[in-house]
Amino acid sequence: MSREGPLADRQTTNRPGHALVILVCYCIIISSLCRGAKGQMLKKKKALKKTVILVICLFGYWLPYCLCILVDTLAMLNVIVFSSFEVQRAVETRISITEALAHFHC
């Protein structure tokens, strides 16, 4: 079965969507930590701080990859045009590097 179109070579997994699901889960955890029993306030503050740090790390690891994929997709759709083949190769290299970085947070 062959696919046609400008995005035919693109891998079909939705990795930015996975990051969104993880972010929503962290937000649910944060909201549940903010409400609840007042007796364990120190433990809740520590857990809340760790969760916020995890969310910041999630963005720090995934944002560069998502931006590179966005630039590559816009180029495939001819919304932006690369000035040379070297620029296209540089974007592809950065996608590989940032993808490895994005998976490093696991």
Automatic annotation (TrEMBL):
Classification via InterPro entries: CCR1-9-like, GPCR_Rhodpsn
MF annotations from Gene Ontology: C-C chemokine binding; C-C chemokine receptor activity
GO cellular component, one term: external side of plasma membrane
Organism: Crenichthys baileyi (White River springfish)
GO biological process, one term: brain development
Record-linked PANTHER family: C-X-C CHEMOKINE RECEPTOR TYPE 4, CELL ADHESION MOLECULE
Subcellular location: Membrane
Main location: membrane
Record protein name field: Uncharacterized protein
Keyword match Acetylation: no
Keywords, alphabetical: G-protein coupled receptor, Membrane, Receptor, Transducer, Transmembrane, Transmembrane helix
Key word Nucleus present: no
Chain ranges passing through the membrane: 16-33, 53-77
